[in-house]
Design brief:
136 residues; alpha+beta; Alpha-Beta Plaits; 4-stranded antiparallel β-sheet; 4 helices; 43% helix; N-reg_PII-like_a/b
């Protein structure tokens, strides 16, 4: 039972230790923040989704990138389309909620929602993301 308890508590204690270290030293914990990529059919849909994400405070910033060409397989056929890409900067802890929310409002049957953890960056910018996106 003690071993099972240690296995359950260790990740929590390790996370707490990392956050305490970060608070004391002012250093960034790699992976605390993420960038999510969301593709959209057109600029209006992209703007609507970006605004909805910001209204829910699920991101500090959403960039709307101009049209790009995409080639992909859909139902066994090679398709080609133009898409608008959103780059969403947020807390890694918000990615699940962000993904659920975007899937609920996105017109695609299977929207592209991918995220990558931020390993390093401008400390002041990363602090700004932290301050801009509520923890809860």
């Amino acid at each position: 039972e003690v071993l099972a308890l240690l296995v359950l508590v260790y990740p929590l204690l390790w996370g707490l230790a990392l956050h305490l270290h970060s608070a004391v030293t002012g250093s960034y914990i790699p992976g605390t923040h993420s960038i999510a990529f969301i593709s959209c059919l057109n600029e209006q849909i992209a703007r609507d989704i970006a605004r909805a994400i910001m209204d829910k405070k699920l991101a500090a910033c959403v960039n709307i990138l101009p049209k790009s060409s995409a080639l992909y397989f859909w139902k066994g056929e090679l398709e080609e389309s133009t898409e608008i890409l959103l780059l969403v900067k947020t807390r890694t802890s918000k990615i699940g909620e962000l993904s659920d929310y975007v899937r609920s409002i996105h017109p695609f049957e299977i929207p592209e929602i991918l995220s990558l953890r931020i390993d390093q960056g401008n400390p002041l910018y990363l602090k700004w993301i932290e301050e801009s996106v509520p923890r809860h």
